[in-house]
Amino acid sequence: PTRIFSGIQPSGGLTLGNYLGALKRFAEKQNDGIETVYCLVDMHAITVWQDPEKLRQQTREAAAGFIASGVDPKRSVLFNQSQVSAHAELAWILNCVARMGWMGRMTQWKDKAGKNSENASLGLFAYPALMAADILAYKATHVPVGEDQKQHLELTRDIAAKFNNDYGVNFFPITEPMIEGAATRVMSLRDGTKKMSKSDPSDQSRINLTDDADTIAKKIKKAKTDPEPLPETVEGLKDRPEARNLVNIYAALAGITPEAVMAEHAGAPFGSFKPALADLAVAHLSPITTEMTRLMQDPAEIDRILGDGADRAEAVARPILEDVYGIVGMIRSR
Ligand code: TYM
Hints:
- By secondary structure, the chain is mainly alpha-helical.
- It is built from 13 helices and five strands.
- Helix 4 crosses helix 7, helix 9 (213-222) runs antiparallel to helix 12 (270-296) and helix 10 (241-254) packs across helix 11.
- The protein binds ligand 1.
- Ligand 1 binds next to strand 1, helix 1 and helix 7.
């Protein structure tokens, strides 16, 4: 049976990258017969220091972002990670399966810890093992993510396979990443070679799900481009990262292929393509922003939804974790 799991860190506001690479697709996966489990990974967030009150606020805001993007807390299980202790418990066991060398090769670790890894938290190093635990605690078969999580998902497969092999069981599934669509890697609006990120110091580099219509339109119109008009075909976008990014964003928002965007806008100058993109982005994102704002009026209701989701998540994860304890040889006598 198909079970989908994915997560987002509430370590800042949600961006258009999170929306197109993840949230929009999470909503699309909610079909009959498919279980969808979506998690706000607050324990991953604290691998770098977070202001406690902001973390709580951002977790609620991210939950509102999920719901406003179409994740239905009745059809999907929506919760925050720290409320289901199976994640932390399984992470410990997987810490003992994963190898230091594997973790040290993670590009996100190398990027985030930088040259000063002596001073990075132990949690930041172990981050991908907690991520594997998130997925494997549900025996999830499929994980929709953006391109930047690909290496972490390969590690998850390695950890699952090593666990199965070390204990001579066929227990954990080898999870399939789902990295699909035109916007698996949305780039910065200021630099087409850098990914759009909630942690970029420049707010101009990203579109936030909380930006109003005017701000969205301005950011797109100011987005960095080269001076040439759009080419005739997708191939012509090859060495033009900024142009390609805007075409990909357009395609993902409109729900069409980049080829179809080119068929419509071939040869268009950015002076006309950008306003068209801005209109499309505003039409698509404004209702989401409005709904987020509405949901944020009632934080107690958001907390209630997360609590309910955590109960349902726990009901799935706990028996799986008990099996794991049994497999590794722990006494469970109460
Ligand atoms: P995070 O919080 O950085 O991002 C959440 C999701 O958004 C995608 N994403 C993007 N997609 C396209 N373009 C971008 N510029 C862009 N930026 C972010 C990410 O690929 C991701 O799908 N480690 C994960 C969270 C996590 C997780 C998990 C994911 C924890 N446990 C288990 C899946 C399964 C992370 O930091 O995502």
